[in-house]
Amino acid sequence: MLKSMTGFGRAECTRGETSIVVEIKSLNGKQFEVNLKFSPLLRPYEFDIRNLMQQVLQRGTLDASINIRQNGATRPVVINTDLAKFYYQSITMLANQLELPQGDMLNVLMKLPEVVSPATEQMTEEEWKDVESTLKEALIDLDSHRIDEGRMLESDLKQRVNNIDEYLLKVRELDPLRKDKIRQRLESLLAEHVGKENVDGNRLEQELIFYLEKLDISEELSRLENHLRYFREILKDEDAAKGKKLGFVLQEIGREINTTGSKANDAGIQQWVVLMKDELEKAKEQVLNVL
């Protein structure tokens, strides 16, 4: 089973006057990176939240938000009057020095840091359990989207690899003909410029063998075939996180295709090599989204 790194998950829970909403959006990324927005009440649980997300999602660039809202009644708050007085004196002094109107001072004071704070800075264990279960539901929802995306990615990657395999067979068919054409071309050039009667047959055969060995692509084709087979085996692997491994194999596939193209010295083979490169680039783009 293949999983994508892209997806979206959402879950909501309401208990009494409290509503919990979790939303997570995932995009591709080389590592696990998360931009997490949550209520200050959840700060003691930040490590647990991140750890849970990484266990389920493993890799990707994530935007996650956990909102806790009070429906109707709100949490009791505490006003720090001493701090408010200190702010008031400082602001009044500054306003007098700058000859500025003081305006609605109370409204300004209520918005200053730590003047108004929740009566309790700690979340109850029961409330945390609700948040945790809602987060797990959102992660399951996101993971389900990743699986659906993964099925489409797997189908496309299989098609790309199968196309490269078909083009590889075409190259194998042309390879013997290529060698015959090279031999005929060299013999024709020697006959034209040296004279057929002046050519040492044994020496010519030795030189032809040496030259054809330098242009031989049988090893490249065999390795390419092995890499394609290994790529399919990885797709069947039960491990969900295999995007990096597939990417490494595609690099090896590209190396053999490039070497084949540079050594082929044949227009017909070059055409199939170009088609293989095109399929390879499409596969690389898709693998970037694989977990």
From TrEMBL:
Keyword set includes Membrane: no
One Pfam family matching this protein: YicC-like_C
Alphabetical UniProt keywords: Endonuclease, Hydrolase, Nuclease
Coiled-coil ranges per UniProt: none
GO molecular function, one term: RNA endonuclease activity
The keyword Transferase is annotated on this UniProt entry: no
Swiss-Prot/TrEMBL cofactor(s): a divalent metal cation
Protein name as annotated: YicC family protein
Record organism: Chitinophaga silvatica
